[in-house]
Amino acid sequence: MKTAAASSSYAFRTTNNKEYESDDRHLMPNNEQTTEQQAKRGVRKGNAKLIWRFLKGSKYLFLGSILASAVSSLADMLDPQIIRAAIDNAIGGKPSEFPVWVNDLVDRIGGFAYLGQHLWIMAAAILAVALLRVAASYCSTVIGTKASETLVKTMRDTLFGHIERLPFSWHMKNHTGDIIQRCTSDVDRVRRFVAEQLTSVLRISVYLVLSLYFMFSMNTGLTLISIVPLPFILLYSVLFRKQMDAGFRDCDENEGKVSAMVQENLTGVRVVRAFGREKAETDRFEKQNEYYTSLWVKMGRLLGRFFSTQDFLSGVQILLVFVFGAVFAIHDRMTPGEYVAFISYNSMLIRPIRMLGRMISEMSKAGVSIGRIGYIMDAEEEKDREGAGEAPMDRDIHFEHITFAYENCPDILHDISFDIKAGTTLGILGGTGSGKSTLMLLLDRMYDLEPGCGTIRIGDTDIRDIRSDYLRDNISMVLQEPFLFSRTISENIGIASEGITLEEIRSAAQAACLDDTVTKFTQSYDTFVGERGVTLSGGQKQRAAIARALTKNAPIMIFDDSLSAVDTETDAKIRSALQERFGTATIILISHRITTLSKADRIIVLENGRITEQGTPDELKSNGGIYQRIYEIQSGVREGRHITAPGTGGKEVAR
Amino acid sequence: MNRKKKEEGLPFFGIPKMMPLIRRYRKTVWVIIWTNVISAVVDVARPIFQRYALNHYVGERTLDTLVWFITLFVVMIGVQAIVNYYCIKVLMASQLRMMRDMRNDAFRHLQELSFDYYNQNAVGYIHSRVMSDTEYIGDLFTWQINDTCVFLLYIVGAVGVMLSINPRLTLLILIILPVIALFYSLFTGRLFELHREVREINSKITGHFNEGITGAKTIKSLVIEKKIEEDFRAETTNMRSKAVESARQRGVFAAVTNMASSCALAIVLWKGGVIAAEEVGTFSLFMSYAQGLMEPVRWLIETLAIFVQGEVNIVRYTKLMETKPSVTDTPEVVEKYGDAFEPKRENWEPIRGDIEFRDVDFKYPDGDEYILEHFNLKIPFGTNVAIVGETGAGKSTLANLICRFYEPTRGQVLIDGKDARERSQLWLHSALGYVLQTPHLFSGTIRDNLLYANENATAEEIDRAIRLVSAENVIAKLEKGLDSDVGEGGDMLSTGEKQLISFARAILADPKIMVLDEATASVDTITEQKIQAAIDTVIRGRTSIVIAHRLSTIRNADIILVVDAGKIVEQGRHDDLIAKKGHYYKLWSRQYEDDAISAAWEENRATPAAEPVPAE
């Protein structure tokens, strides 16, 4: 229970204001535009259904928390009644106007007069009520937090799992930053909506109903008078907040600008210095900073007006109760005890009304956020076709009449057919954009072929009839741009192999020529990769990715230009280690260099999505194609012939 | 790294350090104090009104002074409204102005700090010093100080009124205060600690999302969706339990406050109930005060805790401001040439563009190994120097020394025969052109970016610069031409286009000395040729230091320096170095091979598509 005096003036400065700041300033998403665009497109249908789905596991907690808070609200309502009984009946000696059961209870203790002589009993009642209230509100806080955190957890877990299972094409289409925004800010906003706004509105309603009930039960006339100003206070609050929202958005945008300017100056520090632009930069920054400051100063005036007007209005409402209460009391339509109790109840009304104003103005934002999350949840997860299962993977691989295009793009592969004999090594030579990586993504079923656009078979099985997890587990692919996780090196290497020992990790690292590098780090294999630890060079990353792929011992291995950042000697070492360890595996090597491919059993040359040459390295060496050309350049360099070549660069030689 | 080190504490939470800042806002402090006093008086007075209404009107059954009562009350809440308005206005304005001043100071200071600072501190780290520490500090010295005053004054006022009416009852109530104050002081720290942990886990979760999305291809191909998801769930579970723990803590706090209020109320009722028989108003006054005291006590202690927390922000901010630039101009130099903000251009000698390294030893301030030892090199005006070597071999050291981003540990770098330290940094930088490997454009229009090099460049000069680097097409295809926005970091342009614009920018500066870090990133052939031509144009007729990757640039250089593992291992002209068959030979061969192969591919693609070979 709060007294009017203590709460009115500083409540806004501490609680309200800070809450307000933290709510509005930090949660304004950076890409407000997208949010608005979405809002214009109309709120998605099925929002309620989605929320219902996320509420799984937290529904009853929310219910429990609301119930507990109802109990605590009820306890709040009891104090003024005890005081009223003390003032009017126990001390004042007036006849009781309480319901019969209350009188019976008091009589059993010894009557109001007895209580008047033993006030400690009433004090004890206050404490008993306090215990009830404290217990209930503690439960409500804890259960409520558990509920909202469970909600957030469910949302995040569901989203994360869903995103992991979305097809690769979806990932390519959507911006990382945008998705993350949806998974963080929007999730948080939905949590607020459910955990704070929705439940608060329920809680506040209970509170209002209870206090109005007690007020009406004591004095209908005064209650009516006291609630007259309330709708105005509410309306004022809602309207004003709409106006402030625009101001906050403006402030936010400009804070972003100031922040970006600092960022830009720091990242471009070399350019700033080299052009001697320190002064100009400082001037520019100070100007923007001044503007930003002026916006907040303006905002401060607005906020000041808002809170002081709101305080004034509440003050008037309190005055009404004071004055009319006194009038009622003099005309014997109200006892002193009722008067005191009434003032207490009245003070309980104002805060909830103010909060309600805030809730209402914020509710509209949540719909947009749910829609943005719905966009992710609506996307369809990767699915194997009916009857997909396992198949032996140590068989020949057949590519048959493959034609493929990315969405809204021209064909990248045209009617490509070739076979890879089990246990052999195939080299694919191709320039940038020739479609060689796409071919491998198709084999790994990152993309599925459209009907009528060819088939890929392993043995006799169409790969679309093989479960995607089984297929990928048996194809070890090292990507062109290796991605490492922000974990330790050993965790990174062993990430795909459950229960792998450190020896096995080391041996994979040795085969990938990484062991020497790693053991030089002070924390060796426990060294953290990425922001929190060492930054690996491109070549080191590639080798780590290779080591990771090796631990899988898969029957099919793909190296997609994964030795490009490694020097020629290491390249050769890694390849011979591969041969040794994986003599029986089917290996596909992709490169734009020939040295890497020279030991392959067969080579295909890919250009503009078509196979232009194929054969053994020896055959291709002398058939007059691009392979031969590159072969000659490389052997020329090895023999030192390039030094005497005319011109200044390789371009002339190539012609 | 700085960020890993535990920040050392300062006496009095570092507040004395911030005194100069606070002094600037002395007026604010007075406004805060006076508004708070008024506000507290009003707050304390409210229950007195209630008491009067009860004692006088209800107790004596008269309405004689009602007009006065209403007038006074309205005046009171009116005054409070005005005072509150001022208070919020002034506090907000002061907080923001403090932030503005601190940010301006920090920004200016950062313009003077040397590169070793930038190398040792991540951009994100410095950025938070400028943006968030200042915000916390501003909040601390406005809202938090204000809150402390409000709570203290209210407590003092309420206790005063109570004492004047009934000292015995008051003292009984006051017994509760120290007990809860002690409780709060003991546990507030843990509460804040939990908040911090929750925030940390939260940012980890964002990190997981980031990894799960950017690494989708890898995760799928390794079939580790389950593992990644499990790890994610472990983190969210951890998050939930930490958040619930923090809720428990908060719940206990609220419960204690609540219980304390009720105890106070119970005491009033028990020991003060008799008062109600004569003066209901006085009784209700005690009830109001007794219950209203506990929350302010709790908030007061929370505010104090915020001050303790804020220390770290002050420490970090002052540390930034107290960092001294390692490259500075001597007072004599500043006297003659001016500093970065107030240059005395009238005293500047024109620059010729001769550079000489004389017996230079150099090691980076955070390194242990000497990179240069007794290094001598003369670079007369118009010489083209190419620096070659593996990535990460330390090729930028010489460029850093010439730009005076670092100074030699021993020995001298001479510009036009005079030690660089005898002239101001701005003098040198005004005569330098600098093109980075990853060109850095500032947000704004293309014109803004070009004018960056030379504010007074005329339209003709801009045109000429653009033509010289053949960037006309880049401009032409943009809707607003030169006035098109390039986006943050120039993101609206491709890498190749950014390169060309940054060359044009360098030409506009018309520097005598050009420092250039060639890009390794591959661009399409046409852009590549344009860039190559632009480089030739840019370095013609100037002293140039090029960190080179292009064969033509290297081959045509007057001096080639070969860097390996941080040291200069070979030096000379192309033919001599080739004949040596050492490092340079290897580097050249590899570069040659790569160039030749990509050229072969390019050319092959340009010829009509060959007939597909039928599958066997």
CATH superfamily of the largest domain in chain A: ABC transporter type 1, transmembrane domain
CATH topology of the domain at 17-322 in chain B: ABC transporter transmembrane region fold
- Annotated CATH architecture of the domain at 17-322 in chain B: Up-down Bundle
Q: Helical proportion of chain A?
A: 55-70%
CATH class of the domain at 17-322 in chain B: Mainly Alpha
Q: Output mean pLDDT of chain B.
A: 83
Task: Specify the overall morphology of chain A.
Answer: elongated
Helix-strand layout with pairing:
The complex is a heterodimer of chains A (655) and B (616).
Chain A: H1 4-27, H2 32-40, H3 47-54, H4 59-91, H5 100-109, H6 111-117, H7 119-165, H8 168-173, H9 176-218, H10 220-227, H11 229-267, H12 269-274, H13 278-330, H14 336-378, E1 397-405, E2 411-420, E3 425-430, H15 436-443, E4 455-458, E5 461-462, H16 468-473, E6 475-478, H17 489-494, H18 502-511, H19 515-520, H20 538-550, E7 556-560, H21 568-581, E8 586-591, E9 602-607, E10 610-615, H22 617-621, H23 626-639, H24 650-654
Parallel strand pairs in A: 3-8, 3-9, 6-7, 7-8
Antiparallel strand pairs in A: 1-2, 1-4, 4-5, 9-10
Helix pairs in contact in A: 1-13, 2-14, 4-6, 4-7, 4-9, 4-14, 5-6, 7-9, 9-10, 9-14, 10-13, 11-13, 11-14, 13-14, 18-20
Chain B: H1 19-24, H2 26-60, H3 66-112, H4 115-120, H5 123-165, H6 167-174, H7 176-214, H8 216-222, H9 225-278, H10 280-292, H11 294-322, H12 331-337, E1 355-362, E2 372-379, E3 384-389, H13 396-402, E4 410-415, E5 418-419, H14 425-430, E6 432-435, H15 446-451, H16 459-468, H17 472-476, H18 495-509, E7 513-517, H19 525-539, E8 543-547, H20 551-556, E9 559-564, E10 567-572, H21 574-580, H22 583-606
Parallel strand pairs in B: 3-8, 3-9, 6-7, 7-8
Antiparallel strand pairs in B: 1-2, 1-4, 4-5, 9-10
Helix pairs in contact in B: 2-3, 2-5, 2-10, 3-5, 5-6, 5-10, 5-11, 6-9, 7-9, 7-11, 9-10, 16-18, 18-19
